[in-house]
Design a protein that fits this description.
Blueprint lengths: L10 E6 L4 H9 L4 H9 L1 E6 L6 H10 L3 H4 L5 E3 L6 E3 L10 H7 L4 E4 L12 E4 L4 H4 L2 H7 L4 E6 L4 H9 L6 E6 L2 E4 L2 E4 H7 L27 E4 L3 E5 L15 H13 L11 E5 L1 H4 L11 E5 L3 E5 L17 E4 L1 E7 L8 H10 L11 H8 L19 H6 L22 H13 L4
Parallel strand pairs: 1-7, 1-8, 5-6, 5-7, 10-15
Antiparallel strand pairs: 2-17, 3-4, 8-17, 9-16, 11-12, 12-14, 13-14
């Protein structure tokens, strides 16, 4: 069922990583992308909810698997190397699930990924996989689609990628389904908070007697014999220093519930230095947020910061400030994502009709990033795998299409692929991957 050189892709997916939809509106309005302008005028738009946290790694893995993070096991762009306190970039190999792209391969469709970082591809795809940062080596997207055509093309879109968007849209036909998805939104940073200092001030994170200064490399200053909790990652992720799990754990399992309560208290009482506004609206545990066999890979407590609060700072040093000022991200991810879809299966750009569809679907819950992949499959007339958490977003489909093509499921499952506790990266490789992630704005 693969496509030929004269056969356009059956679907094009624009994965808008860290881009506000307003930037696409601007590009469409200025006619820089005529195909996109037409899609905006005739397609359907729908708000979607990202993952918790709205980490690029977590959100895009939920997009590519249509599964809850508790199923696929990816929660952030960093993870602890098993048996150590060392932080390493989350490798694609840590995803426990196979992806929708492999499922499409199993149905006989070729898939091309271009500029997509968090795609968790192992094992290899039937098609091609050009990683973010490697596009120049692969050549122009249009030429690749002509020389090695695919049925489904997934394009990672960043500010410098408008030319690739134009090339992808230029090969579409009237029958091509087009989906543009922002897996999360972004807002300007208002204040930055050092989560390690929050824990230290609460007596949960302790430093060695000879430690000093306001900077640290990892956890070099931490006294693990007295530390009960520590933090890391792109959000306020807190892990207990649990005996039997961590290399120098001191918290007995029966003490865990009490330490979690202390962590919650510390986060929820952290206030803005000028306004007194509380900076965290909630502090949740994995069991409250996720479902699935890999819930245990998540942090023990996740602090959910209010809009504009950057909680990605974890400077575990005795003199590190609680509010580090300019040392942090310019924008903060939010859970407000968006979907734009066009093609024969979808509603036309009738705002009132879309509003009516949204009202009629109000009892079905708010669509999530996990629902985008199943929406793509259903638009292609394909059955859904059994072991996904997402569902087609019914409100974006043309009523006639839904009447003739109700969602159906196959006997197939995404399934799992083998993972390992062995280091995926050497130290040098980890540093290179981390640099790439930082250059691309993922960390």
């Amino acid at each position: 069922m693969g496509c030929s050189a004269t056969h356009p892709p059956r679907a094009i997916v624009l994965a808008l990583d860290g881009i506000i939809f307003g930037a696409m509106d601007c590009a469409a309005e200025t006619s820089r992308l005529p195909g996109l302008s037409s899609l905006f005028g005739h397609g359907v738009r729908c708000g979607i909810r990202s993952t918790t946290p709205p980490s690029p790694a977590c959100a895009w893995t939920s997009f590519s698997t249509a599964q809850d993070p508790g199923q696929h096991g990816v929660f952030d762009s960093q993870q602890l190397r098993p048996g150590t306190y060392d932080l390493v970039p989350a490798a694609e190999g840590c995803c426990r699930s196979r992806t929708l792209w492999h499922y499409l391969n199993g149905l006989g469709l070729r898939v091309g990924l271009y500029g997509v970082l968090w795609a968790c591809p192992p094992p290899a795809l039937n098609g091609w996989d050009i990683r973010a940062g490697d596009e120049a080596d692969a050549g122009p997207l249009g030429a690749l689609l002509e020389s090695d055509p695919v049925d489904v093309c997934v394009l990672g879109v960043r500010p410098e990628s408008w030319g690739d968007v134009h090339e992808a849209l230029s090969v579409r036909s009237e029958e091509t389904a087009i989906i543009a998805v922002a897996a999360y939104g972004v807002v300007p940073t208002r204040v930055r908070v050092n989560v390690a200092r929050v824990l230290a001030d609460a007596g949960l994170l302790c430093y060695r007697s000879d430690a000093h200064g306001a900077q640290a490399v990892g956890f070099e200053h931490v006294d693990w014999a007295r530390t009960r909790a520590f933090s890391w990652g792109g959000f306020a992720q807190v892990r207990l220093n649990l005996r039997g799990r961590e290399p120098e754990g001191v918290v007995a399992p029966e003490e865990g519930e009490g330490i979690v309560a202390e962590v919650r208290q510390a986060l929820l009482h952290t206030e803005h230095p000028e306004t007194g506004e509380r900076l965290f609206s909630e502090a949740r545990t994995p069991g409250e947020l996720y479902q699935g066999p890999n819930v245990g890979a998540a942090a023990d407590v996740l602090g959910l910061s209010v809009s504009g609060v950057d909680a990605s700072i974890h400077i575990a040093a005795p003199e590190a400030p609680l509010f580090p000022g300019a040392n942090g991200r310019a924008t903060v991810p939010t859970r407000e994502g968006l979907l734009l879809a066009g093609g024969p299966a979808f509603r036309a750009g009738d705002g009132e009709a879309i509003a009516r569809a949204a009202r009629s679907a109000a009892g079905l819950g708010e669509p999530t990033i996990m629902d985008v992949g199943p929406t793509l499959l259903h638009a292609l007339g394909l059955p859904l795998p059994q072991d996904i958490d997402g569902r087609p977003i019914r409100r974006v489909f043309d009523p006639g299409y839904l009447a003739e093509h109700p969602p159906r499921y196959s006997e197939a499952r995404l399934g799992c692929h083998e993972t390992t506790d062995e280091p995926v990266y050497s130290q040098g490789e980890a540093e290179q991957v981390e640099k790439r992630l930082r250059d691309l704005g993922y960390m």
